[in-house]
Amino acid sequence: MTIAKLDDMPLLTPKLGVELRYAQSNGLLWKDIWIPSNTPQAPHERPKGTTAEHHGRKHSKAHPAASKRPNPAFRTPQLETISQIEASLILPQFTAADAWRLGSALRERLLPIPTPVVINISLANANQTLFHTATHSGVMPDNDVWVARKRKTVLRWGVSTWYLHCKFAGDEKAFAEKYGLGPSAGEYAIHGGGIPIRVKGVEGVVAVVVVSGLKQHEDHAVIVEVLKEFI
User: Fold this and answer.
1) Which residue of 18, 73, 191, 206 sits 20 to 30 Å from the alpha carbon of 41, by its own alpha carbon?
2) What tens digit of pLDDT does each residue of 145-187 get?
3) Where do Basic and acidic residues bias regions lie (predicted)?
């Protein structure tokens, strides 16, 4: 099975978005994999200067750069390809020092973006935080709640929250009913931005990295972009 290459995926830019190249990889376009334009987003994760109306159709004058965010036509996400990309993100090792380097690299990548973003890295076998920071002032306490929900989702299903979001087309009710979550449904979130960290030769998830504050596909994409540098 050929793994889709990540090299054609450009870096997150200071324009508050992922500028996609529509280069084909395994016959698929990157926009087919990453961004369905009708992806819902939690209010706290919308960039400042946008309204609830499709995060981009209306913008305040305070952040004119937000109007440059990509808004490609909707295409059904390719779950198999998302899964292949995640399966390729196997690190050679993962220590506290590696967590610091990974978190610092994410912070460095996100600093040019004025939207405040939370970065969290924690071990899977205990609720032990190895890295936690906000890129700018203005982060709401609610972001930490979303970090916890994304983390818990990754630990239970062993896949990224973006994968689950695409699998259920963002339908949290269907997701909750499928797994019989009942009253505990609110403890989980299928919003992109939570990714499992796996290590070569180690069974299961070793740690979880979460980004919260951008659009959810951007939260997911920036983690993938930075993680590939550690392989």
Assistant:
1) 206
2) 999 999 999 999 999 999 999 999 999 999 999 999 999 999 9
3) 43-54
CB 215 within 8 A of CB 46: yes
Q: Which residues pair with 13 in a beta bridge?
A: 17
Residue 199 pairs in a beta bridge with: 91
Alpha-carbon span 151 to 160, nearest angstrom: 9
Q: Each residue of 93-110: pLDDT tens digit?
A: 999 999 999 999 999 999
Per residue, the 3-state secondary structure of the chain, as one string, reads CCCCCCCCCCCEECCCEECCCCCEECCEEHHHHHCCCCCCCCHHHCCCCECCCCCCCCECCCCHHHHHCCCCCCCCCCHHHHHHHHHCCEECCCCHHHHHHHHHHHHHHHCCCCCCCEEEEEECCCCCEEEEEECCCCCCHHHHHHHHHHHHHHHHHCCCHHHHHHHCCCCHHHHHHHCCCHHHHHHCCCCCCEEEEEECCCCCCCEEEEEECCCHHHHHHHHHHHHHHHC
Domain boundaries along the sequence of the chain: 12-84, 89-230
The backbone region for 182, taken as left when phi is positive above 0, alpha when psi lies in -120 to 50, beta otherwise, is left
Contacts of 46-55 with C-beta under 8 Å, sequence gap 24+, read: 46/215, 47/16, 47/115, 47/214, 47/215, 48/114, 48/115, 48/138, 55/215
Q: Are strands 12-13 and 17-18 parallel, antiparallel or unpaired?
A: antiparallel
